[in-house]
Amino acid sequence: MNPLLKLLALNKGKGQPIRAESGNDEDTIYIYDVITSDDFWGGVDGESFVRLLNSKTAPVIHLRINSPGGDVFAARSMVQAIREHKSKIIAHIDGMAASAATDIVMAADESYITDGGMFMIHNAWTIAVGNKDDFIKTADLLERVDQVIAQNYIDKSGQEPEQIKKWMDEETYFFGQEAVDAGFVNGIAAAKPKNQIKWDISAYKNAPPPKQENPEPDPEPKPDPAPEPDPTPKPEPQAPDLSAHYRQLEVVQLTA
């Protein structure tokens, strides 16, 4: 199965529709889903994002991102809209920015990642249909896209081209501070987002195993109740003192 199709299928219905919130001189757009070129798989499609972004005029626009990636060409249209927008755009990786989602992060003026967030880069994916000539053209186009994306990574991070190519070829994951140290994001986010989405990224060849939830520890067994103490034995009743009674009988007999 095409790995991009697998990624979309595994995560269909897990995300949230693209939405925006407005505040004081700031707008926020949430990209909490896979990135797609149409709405068949759900997700965030490039056309909807571009239309929503262009409707915002606040001086600062925040992009809250939690996405396992998706179609590179859909992401490219989103990138172009971000670069052409007049507002300052700040990207926040709330959980994951993988594959095509990292391209969106690179287009922002500033970017931040949560302490446990994930940033993954690899060579671009798309879905192709047609004959062999169509596939050859698509492969050539993907190679050019990889070169453009790689240059974006180089410009942002200051890394050498050979290093970026190696990371992309190997499908490399950066967690939290690692993404900052590599130069892909500007810093660690001050606060963790409240809502998290658990993506299935098994379509990627080097996907780390999902985090195991810490199981609740088994409750400590209650100790057996202490045995009740044996009841204090009642003292045996003392034999009655009959001596006085016998003396009374003797008196009766003597006076009879």
Secondary structure: helix percent? 25-40%
Tally of alpha and pi helices: 8
What's the CATH architecture name? Answer: Alpha-Beta Complex
Order of helices and strands: HEEEEHEHEHEEHHEHEH
Query: How is the biggest beta sheet arranged?
Result: 8 strands, mixed
Apparent shape: globular
Structural class: alpha/beta
Q: What is the domain total for the residues?
A: 1
Measured distance between first and last alpha carbons = 127 Å
The radius of gyration computed from the alpha-carbon positions, rounded to a whole number of angstroms, is 37 Å
As residue ranges, the low-confidence spans are 244-256
Mean pLDDT: 84
CATH homologous superfamily label: 2-enoyl-CoA Hydratase, Chain A, domain 1
CATH class bucket: Alpha Beta
Give me the CATH fold name: 2-enoyl-CoA Hydratase, Chain A, domain 1
Number of beta-strand segments? 10
Strand content range: 15-25%
